[in-house]
Design brief:
By secondary structure, the chain is an alpha/beta fold. It folds into two domains: 135 residues; 122 residues, Trna Endonuclease, Chain: A, domain 1, CATH 3.40.1350. Helix content is 70%, strand content 16%.
Length: 259
């Protein structure tokens, strides 16, 4: 009978379920099934957690790579800053050297001015002595001075004439002092007493310069107005007037060039 019962359990499904129900095993099976389903859900969540963890590791790796790149960029930036500081330091050294060179240059200029002042005093005394010794005219005096001045400007073989006559449009034009190479014309007057006379002398010189330009086909290299005596206020007026017309003014019998 025992064997038949076991055989029925194996062969007859309904009989088996009836026996299970009778014994209360159906609840165990349902509980087991629920546990298995719960375990399955847990494994699915674990799987999801692992996938999420993998994604987190991937993100972490990306972040570490970005951090590494930022560190490398920061190092490069510090290298650039260091290079800029070195360049700035070199620049300040060059500026310092330029300032020192400029100071030396100004010292040289100062020395040159002092030497020039001594030279002009020497020239003035020399021309004064020649004028007194030879009794030459003021025009000849200025002509000699112009030769020296042009020599200082690099013209070593200059012929400066006194009272040069030029024929223009049937008229004879007198120029007090004249050099053809370089082309220089000058008006010489012993006294200018007022501004009207100053305007007249400068205008006459400018007109003669225009005539010379037409005759020789070039503008004069220099226009010179030499004045023996003038009141102080007239001298100041002459300085402004000659500057406006690009005329070099020479004042006084002692030959004092006014720049």
């Amino acid at each position: 009978m025992k064997e038949e019962f076991l055989e029925l359990l194996e062969r007859d499904k309904e009989f088996r379920y009836a026996v299970i129900g009778y014994l209360g095993l159906d609840r165990i099976e349902r509980t087991q099934t629920a546990i298995l389903e719960e375990i399955k859900r847990i494994w699915e969540e674990i799987k999801a957690l692992r996938e999420g963890q993998n994604k987190l590791w991937e993100e972490a790796n990306k972040i570490w790579k970005e951090v590494k790149a930022l560190r490398e960029s920061q190092e490069k930036l510090w290298e650039e800053v260091k290079a800029l500081r070195e360049s700035q330091h070199k620049l300040w050294e060059e500026v310092k050297a330029l300032r020192e060179g400029q100071e030396k240059l100004w010292e040289e200029v100062k020395a040159l001015r002092e030497n020039q002042g001594r030279l002009w005093r020497y020239v003035k005394s020399g021309f004064e002595g020649i004028r007194e010794a030879l009794g030459i005219s003021f025009e000849e005096y200025i002509a000699s001075f112009l030769r020296f001045m042009l020599y200082e400007l690099g013209y070593t073989d200059v012929k400066v004439e006194v009272r040069k006559y030029i024929v223009y449009e049937g008229k004879v034009i007198e120029i007090n002092v004249f050099s053809e190479d370089p082309l220089v014309i000058g008006e010489v007057t012993l006294t200018i007493r007022n501004t009207d006379e100053a305007d007249r002398e400068v205008r006459k010189l400018v007109e003669r310069a225009e005539i010379v330009s037409k005759v020789y086909g070039e503008k004069p290299y220099m226009k010179v107005l030499a004045v023996g005596n003038a009141p102080k206020e007239v001298i100041e007026y002459l300085k402004k007037l000659t500057t406006r017309y690009d005329v070099k003014l020479i004042m006084g019998r002692e030959i004092k060039e006014v720049f």
